[in-house]
Amino acid sequence: MRIPGIVIFMSIVLTVSGQQFHFNQHEASTDLVRLNPTTIFRHKNELIYIGTEEGLMIYDGNAHEIVLRNDKGSEYVTALNHDGNNLWVGYNDGAVYYYFNNILVPVSLKPQGPKSRITAILKDNKDQLWVSTYGEGIYVVAGNDRFSFNSNDGLLSNDIYDMVAVNVDKIFIATDAGIQQCGLINQKKSVTIPSFAKKLPEDVFTKLYSDQKNNRLVVGTFQQGLWILDFKTGQVNKASALNKQITDIQYLNENELIIQTNDKSALWLVNISDNKQTEISTSGLESPLSIIDILADSESNLWILCRNNGLVSASATFTKYFTGIKNIQAIHFIGNRIYVANETGLFVSTDRRVFNPLIKNENILSLQYAPGTNEMWCGTYGNGIILFNVDTKHKRHITEQDGLANNSVFCFAKRKSIVWASTLAGLTQISENGKVIKTMSRRSGLPSDYNYALFVDKSSRLWVGTDGKGIIEIDTNETVKAFKSDHTILSFAQDGDGTVWFSTLNKGIGSIKGDSIHWFDMKDGLTEIHISGITSDKNGDIVVFHHTGFDIVQTEDMKIINIGNNIGVRKWEQNINAFSHDDNGNIWVTEGDRIIRYNNPMDMNLQPFLYIKRVQAGQTPLQSSTNIEVPYDENDFLIQYAGIWSQDPESVRYRYKLDNTDNDWRYTKDQKLIYPNLAPGNYNFILECAINQNFTFADRFTINFTISQAFWKTWWFNIILFGLIVMIVYSIIENRAFRKKQMEVIKTEHVKSQLETLKSQINPHFLFNSFNTLISVIENKPGQAVHFVEKLSDFYRTILQYRDTDLIPLSEELAIMENYRYLLEQRFGSSIKIDINTEDNTAYMILPLTLQLLVENAVKHNIVSKNKPLQIKIQQESDLLKVCNNLQLKISIETSTHFGLQSLSRRYLHLMGKEIEVIKTEKTFCVHIPLKFLT
Length: 935
Fold this sequence. Notes:
Layout: E1 18-22, E2 24-25, H1 29-35, E3 37-42, E4 48-52, E5 55-59, E6 64-67, E7 77-82, E8 87-91, E9 96-100, E10 103-106, E11 118-123, E12 129-133, E13 138-142, E14 145-149, E15 160-166, E16 170-175, E17 178-185, E18 188-192, E19 205-211, E20 216-221, E21 226-230, E22 236-238, E23 246-253, E24 256-261, E25 267-271, E26 276-283, E27 291-296, E28 301-306, E29 310-315, E30 318-322, E31 330-334, E32 337-342, E33 345-349, E34 356-360, E35 364-370, E36 375-380, E37 385-389, E38 395-398, E39 409-415, E40 418-423, E41 426-431, E42 436-440, E43 451-456, E44 462-466, E45 471-474, E46 480-483, E47 489-494, E48 500-504, E49 509-513, E50 516-520, E51 531-536, E52 542-546, E53 549-554, E54 559-563, E55 579-581, E56 587-591, E57 594-598, E58 609-617, E59 620-621, E60 628-630, E61 637-644, E62 653-658, E63 666-668, E64 672-675, E65 681-690, E66 699-707, H2 715-761, H3 764-780, H4 782-801, E67 808-809, H5 810-828, E68 832-837, E69 844-846, H6 850-861, E70 870-877, E71 880-886, H7 899-912, E72 917-920, E73 924-930, ...
Parallel strand pairs: 1-26, 60-66, 68-70
Antiparallel strand pairs: 1-30, 2-29, 3-4, 4-5, 5-6, 7-8, 8-9, 9-10, 11-12, 12-13, 13-14, 15-16, 16-17, 17-18, 19-20, 20-21, 21-22, 23-24, 24-25, 25-26, 27-28, 28-29, 30-57, 31-32, 32-33, 33-34, 35-36, 36-37, 37-38, 39-40, 40-41, 41-42, 43-44, 44-45, 45-46, 47-48, 48-49, 49-50, 51-52, 52-53, ...
Helix pairs in contact: 2-7, 3-4, 4-5
């Protein structure tokens, strides 16, 4: 019967009878089916390595990548092993590699080989590498030496199926002609047939498994099934009645092996202690298995490579059995017999498959075995207690008429020879032979008559869990102590240190020490606070049941581990106190019409492993063991990682902190972090992973690195920079002073130039010559006299107009030159010829009166006559104006200061950045004038 308000409702769907594992398909499956997987391997609780025909796959539970060889050889992986430092990979073409720093590195076995398929790889205690092949025997790498074992050395066959190291220094090989032992003794090859081989059947030996912990060798054959050699006793025994071809052997726990046979759709669980085998049926998959390879890892997960389903896994700590009995309310073990009860009666099974009815038409809520009378006590709803003799099948009753407080009995607890029963009307003490001794209720001082949990600890104290009234402790003197609260207490347990724990309906769990209670909830790592029950396992830890699975409280350090979310439990329908222990320490929990066995191995890993894929600053790889200084521009910090937890990869969460950047922890489920544009300084990065909200025991990764200062922010650079600034400022000041002085000089020279030009033009000779020319014009050509005076007037007016102008258009300068040429031609007639040839005289600028000055210099220093006419050419070539005259110097040269050309050159240098160029030959005198393009 289900009790309203107490039952935690859950459900899973199982459709196959018998023993079951719930398998989950992994994200990598789609690619694996395409790549044709061949073998699988896992070292401890780290990454999963999968061989395929197309390369090596590395899988972290969430993401995967393919690693290829660099020699373009076969990518068909046939063997994998890990020596604790490196992963070793064997290929179909005989190549052997090891995986290091994310790349595959080839291994040289021997110049000529092998060329055959690699079947196994291992390292012995001398760090010697052993490689077996199918067709070429065995190759060994011992330091710098290389050896090979084949039929010439005594091997029964060169076709090696498998190879293992037993006790580390003994190498056993399985062939189609028997088992042999190989070794290197003083660098000499040794091949022997072990004495135990005579006790094995004549068959092809296909698989070997070394049970180092128990010093056993497990042998698989082609037709004769499974055999076990015990090195301690020397005995060889057949492990089961399974007469099938054994293709793989995996160690599940101390007493159980998982066996793969040539039947690709079947797996077998073999119990070594009783040599019984059970076929494993599956749930959670849409199609039957088509098995290629299997793996049992350190987390007690069973991994299967399939042709059709890719990669699937199951938690082998949980085994499910279909009973066909609905709504199981109680379970109890006596030896190898399982007793279960529900609303219709009591049932028993010896094979966990067929359950036979013992009591019918009784709503049984609880079970308790009394070994003294060999009776199973059955607490019913409304019909008291039924005492059922498990051998004689005789029944007798204890009811209210016999002194029972109430006929509805929730649970039992036995203290010494007294059985305590909890009913709807308080507690009843009953002797083992069934006589009611005493009742206790609210009338006698108990806080409540409704009690759902009874538990006797190692000190014989009785603990009572009430319905909303807290906890009652009753010592051996029947002194009652109450821990009052408004919580409903469902179950009790005691850990290995003697501390009593309890579970509640909606506040998590608690532990009792003295008079105080310490509570645990989700912030401490629990997955749920709605707890259906607790018990202790064989390790002394507390196992907590809730609607999504199990939590394990490791009481030595109060670490809480969550398991169960990945075993097919989604909403688990469980009644209160519906769990039990068998003689092997397994915990059995009911779920609807199924029972689930939880086996917690002593050495089971229950913590996620933090695997660092990549960590770098900019393009600089970082290592956790060193404090690396990276350049200022390599300041983007990146880290990729994975929390390896195959029980439930999606439950892994992370927290991280970068000192000098993060004030507190940051939480994430991402597997990649980037800190861009970090400032120079020292950094300490911390990353942790956990499977709940409690990171106290999380796996941690730390790294220290320093980002250097940019050179322009260093003290020495600042000193140099300050010095340069001082020098630049000083240079600017000096340059300004120099330029100011130069400008003054240029202005002075400009004024002098203007004065010289003006003086040259008002020179008495020039005026005298101009007047003489005017008189001649008046006498001979009176009509041109007025025009001559106008030209002369325009010329002098232009001199005055442009005396303060720096640059004028070339066209205006040529206009001035035309006036000046007219005056010269009126004076000298045909004795002077001025030829002007320009391209684009409107696009360029020139210093005013430049041409007048140069032509005047030519007239001043050269003979101008009919016999020796002065020829002056003004020629433009792009941004260059050439003024040339034939050289016919006067015998009596006028005194010259040479100021005109020098001043003109300095002015051009200042205004245009270019000097004039004077080219003098024996026959010509040329001056090249730079022009400025008019923008």
